[in-house]
Specification:
single chain; about 375 residues; 8-stranded parallel β-sheet; 3-stranded antiparallel β-sheet; 15 helices; about 45% helix; binds the ligand CC#C[C@H]1NC(N)=Nc2cc3[nH]c(NC)nc3cc21
Length: about 375
């Protein structure tokens, strides 16, 4: 029995697609960029700016939220939307990646993963069933399966073992997800490292199990862009064409444009906020490092044609000063400016695909970045 499908494709231009994904908390226009609110907040940005920037959906992390303030407390307080004040769609990651990247003393067995909290050292167990229970307690619109994310570098056998385990956990997650409230979704995660055969096996295996949507994980971890794109080309064609595809943790504006070209519909990345806090501005003319002294006397705004007021009103000199002085306002302004740029890029992508002009949009956008 196939799962209900809340994704509607509106247009395609080659393998690039644009559509809408209906969730219990609202509609997501795709291709979509999801700002990362790891612990239930956007670092240094109010939800008001996130909404005004054009974001339809934000991401939270099971690992962080289950440790603090705990899933049970969030449920008792009405769920993630009520608790955080973000009254829109939320996707939550399952914890697989964060346990690998943050937790101390991680032990993986068939049952699940045992780890020590990086906050207080408490020992916790995360099984596929608990990962689904936690996301149910959050009230997540889109939940992610629990997967095993191997620390790189890893042997092919290690990547293969983790991919096979993740497929078995995907089955268990789907069973645990049964009975979820109407409209809530569960995505599987394609694994397989940079091994084409493993990527194909993982994608085909997840398609057999059947999910509301499919993520591709384990890319943008330092491999060259052409390797990342090659793995997308291996996996995407094997995933159900009528379901959303989400490339996890990606990426730069160029990564996203190239992934959209290859059929990806959803993205999340910490770059806009993390690099914003470090003084980097993403613009139509490429990245500007406001720490650089050459901006100290520059009265020009970042982009006089930007749709985001702070990007066309504050001078580069002032932003340079805020960054050098370590003023919180500097990090806040550049974070929201970057999120707004990522959203404007996705809006342009959606319009271009709908008009059958994605190739021209891609070429013009890349030319803008190169112009500097
Ligand atoms: C292997 C694998 C895998 C994926 N598994 C889960 N549950 N979440 C992820 C989150 C990510 N963030 C980034 N940033 C580069 N890559 C990610 C990959 C995953």
């Amino acid at each position: 029995m196939s799962l209900p499908n809340s994704f509607r494709l509106l247009a395609a231009d080659g393998t690039a697609r644009t559509g809408v994904l209906e969730t219990p908390h609202g509609v997501v226009r795709t291709p979509a960029f999801m700002p990362v609110g790891t612990a239930g907040a956007m670092k240094g940005i109010h939800w008001r700016e996130i909404r005004e920037s054009g974001a339809d959906i934000v991401l939270g992390n099971t690992y962080h939220l289950m440790l603090r303030p705990t899933a049970e407390r969030i449920a008792a307080l009405g769920g993630l939307q009520k608790f955080t004040g973000w009254n829109g769609p939320m996707l939550t990651d399952s914890g697989g990646f964060q346990v690998m990247s943050l937790a101390k003393l991680r032990k993986v067995t068939e049952q699940g993963v045992r780890f020590k909290s990086h906050i207080d050292g408490a020992v916790l167990d995360l099984s596929p069933e608990r990962a689904i229970e936690v996301q149910r307690l959050f009230g997540s619109d889109i939940a992610m399966q629990l997967d095993e994310c191997v620390r790189l570098p890893a042997s092919r056998d290690e990547v293969d073992r983790a991919m096979q385990l993740s497929l078995r956990w995907a089955e268990r997650c789907k069973r645990a997800f049964e009975g979820a409230p109407q409209g809530h979704m569960l995505f599987g995660i394609v694994q397989g490292g940079d091994v084409a055969k493993l990527r194909r096996q993982s994608a085909a295996g997840l398609g057999e199990i059947g999910f509301h949507g499919y993520a591709i994980g384990g890319l943008a971890v330092g491999e060259p862009q052409d390797v990342m794109l090659a793995m997308i080309e291996e996996a995407a064609p094997l995933l159900p064409q009528d379901r959303p595809r989400y490339l996890m943790g990606v990426g730069t504006p160029d990564d996203m444009i190239e992934a959209v070209k290859r059929g990806i519909d959803m993205f999340d990345c910490v770059l806009p906020t993390r690099n914003g806090r470090h003084g980097h501005a993403f613009t139509r003319r490429g990245v500007i490092n406001l720490r650089n002294a050459r901006h100290a006397d520059d009265p020009r705004p970042l982009d006089e044609e930007s749709s985001w007021p702070p990007a066309r009103s504050y001078s580069r000199a002032y932003l340079h000063h805020l960054v050098k002085a370590g003023e919180a306002l500097g990090a806040m302004l550049l974070s929201e400016i970057n999120i707004a740029y990522f959203q404007s890029l996705m809006a342009g992508v959606r319009e271009a695909i709908a008009a059958g002009q994605f190739a021209d949009f891609r070429a013009a956008t890349k030319a803008g970045w190169a112009a500097g």
